[in-house]
Amino acid sequence: MIAPRADVALMEGYHSPQVDVPVRLNTNESPEPPPQPWLDALAAEVGRIAWHRYPDRAATALREAIGSLHGVPATQVFAANGSNEVIQTLLLTFGGPGRSAAMWEPTYALHSHIARLTGTAVAVGERSADFTLDLAEVDRTLERGAPSVVFLCSPNNPTGLVEPEPVVRAVLDRCVARDALLVVDEAYAQFAPWSALELVGEDVPLVVTRTYSKTWSMAAARLGYLVGPTWAVDALHKVVLPYHLDALKQAAGTLAVRFVAEMDQRVARLVEERGRLVAALAALPVDVWPSGANFVLFRPRGRAGADVWQQLLERGVLVRNCSSWPRLEDCLRVTIGTRGEDDAFLAALEEALT
Question: Whole-model pTM?
């Protein structure tokens, strides 16, 4: 038997439990399916795919559709198999042995995990007690780690906090001064009040990553992308594997952009439901963090998070146990579901806390 790399052997994979329960609120998926007209259009498109031929290697139609969505040319768009492959390709291109990536915990665990998989050193700073980003700590981390890639996640997963525009601009200024690439992970941006996309430019070392998994109700498709300067996109295309996006996935993503209005309506419903859920949690013995995403982080008072998670599971409700994540002892994260799913969660939580 051939052993894996020594560093890989010591790693723990990134996994979300897939348990067959009535209410699954642990992976931040959309609780609503995509619109039926999109499904009909995609079914018709399947019959037109030349299955005996490789797909468009450049994913031209898809990148043009995404570009039209954000008001940029296709040359500023890179698409891949979920935003995680986007991050992987970024680190293979701008990270790697002899380079490092910076991030501030708690944040999205795959930023550091993928960095290590690509041989990129990790410079980890800490957020303040309220999980906001302190610029003095940013300076310390950048000075210590001298990163070539810097990650911000906004809204931050799993805390839900949105990075204020002045903070992102300040970190970007520091990246410009240090010749580093700033990656703003916006998997949940449609739920938030502002986007770093407005800062993207040809002479700016900034890329913004997005996903189809959340607001587009397309988690099963595994499709993500970034918007950034042309020079960054060109470099990524040199690194990514050929024909990495299959024809069906390209068609699905291209067609989805025709249904922006329906996506916006789903987002509005979820934001309204998020407000209702947060208000209900405020009446329970839990600490709740403000969220600009489609999930809410909370911590039961005086109770072990793992115990509450298990009791919820026994009542048919699955949420994410974040207790083992950095700085998140006893914390749980719940995805915003349908009104019925959220009511079931609240009832189960109230029982679990008594």
Answer: 0.94
